[in-house]
Amino acid sequence: MYPKVLIHVDKYQNNLKMLLDTFHSKGFSVMVVSKVFGADQRLIEGINASSADFIADSRIQNLKSMTTTKPKVLLRLPQMSEIKAVIRYADISLNASLKTILKLNQEALRQNKVHKIILMIDIGDLREGIYYRDFDVSIINQILSLSNIKLAGIGTNLTCYGGVIPTYETMKRLDDIQRQIEQSFSLKLSLISGGNSSIYPFIESDEYPKNINNVRIGELLILGRETSYGTPVLGLYDDVITLQAQVVETANKPSVPEGLLGLNAFGEPVSFEDRGLLNRAILAIGKQDVHPDHLICPKGIHILGASSDHLIVEIQEEQTLDIGDVLEFKLTYGGILSLMTSKYVRKTYV
Ligand SMILES: *Cc1c(COP(=O)(O)O)cnc(C)c1O
């Protein structure tokens, strides 16, 4: 049955090994991020067998369902409604407010556990974290006084909301805060978590503040490219996860609909360019499974549009397609994310 997602376990293992070797050789510990593939257990097994230092996900459900020997890290700031589960299923969580940390401490005390936290500092991307200009060491004083919370380190996240690329000048802000904390309390923070897949070129350049000693990597492992500039990394596969969909109609039809035009299936206004008759195919996959912008077409195939359950493509000269044929697409990050969580898409392992 199609649509089908193909998970190339060996390609993931290749990417994993190469990147872990690279980061480890430079002295970084690595949190391997599983959210993009919905913490699929077969890929988790690969991570278990690798030299990954931690496994990280933004959803507590994923940390709960996975079987792993690695320490588990919750990436998204804990919700007040999931504190119990966070203490139960995560060894470490990323945090940005004392209110949440106090709640975590209470619950950790109740469960008789010590929960580690990484305090997030927002150095300009404006997603999570204490805004670096507002940072005040008094929060550290309060964290250090808690019985069941251990401050494992500080971290930052870039290139998410604001698209800020890691540079020396930006990363220096994290460095300054680390120094402030360590000097004020005569302690050494063990984890300085510098960023996600966008940090790769910066680290390759070797001109990063050398205090950073941890990275959290998801997309780079699945798509084989860093996310600051989108450059492919030599030796990594870009097709760890692909999609197959089946043709249910082929026909030559005009390029412009006929009649009075209103809105499309999604309530959006439509416009068409007259390119005469088009050689087209319809595939049994739609926006309910994946947005067409997130599909990377094979040669000779051009996407015309999609509704909830249908994908309409133009077949160009060099391609021929018949009913029953199967097309294979490479995917963007967004495509993998939505396909891995669609119950209508079969997952198979290669
Ligand atoms: C998702 C996420 C990551 C991983 O990002 P990639 O771009 O997939 O490497 C790292 N840190 C945090 C806080 C995240 O939410």
If you had to describe this structure to a student in words, what would you say it looks like?
This protein is of the alpha/beta class and 350 residues long. Helix content is 27%, strand content 25%. It has ten helices and 17 strands. Strands 2, 3, 4, 5, 6, 7, 8, 9 and 10 form a nine-stranded parallel β-sheet that branches. Strands 1, 11, 12, 13, 14, 15, 16 and 17 form an eight-stranded mixed β-sheet that branches. Helix 1 (9-25) packs parallel to helix 2 and helix 4 (83-89) crosses helix 5 (98-110). It starts with a strand and ends with a strand. The model has no long low-confidence stretch (mean pLDDT 96). The protein binds pyridoxal-5'-phosphate. Pyridoxal-5'-phosphate binds next to strand 10 and helix 9.
Characteristics:
single chain; 350 residues; alpha/beta; 10 helices; binds pyridoxal-5'-phosphate
Query: Which spans of ≥5 residues are poorly predicted at pLDDT below 50?
Result: none
Radius of gyration: 23 Å
Helix content: 25-40%
Average per-residue pLDDT, rounded, comes to: 96
Q: What class do helices, strands and sheet pairing give?
A: alpha/beta
Number of helices: 10
Which H/E pattern describes the elements? EHEHEHEHEHEEHEHEHEHEEEEEEHE
Report the sheet with the most strands, covering strand number, pairing sense and barrel closure. Answer: 9 strands, parallel
Bound molecules: pyridoxal-5'-phosphate
Report, as a whole number of angstroms, the end-to-end distance.
16 Å
Count of beta strands: 17
The percent range for strand residues is 25-35%
What best-fitting shape do the alpha-carbon axes yield? Answer: elongated
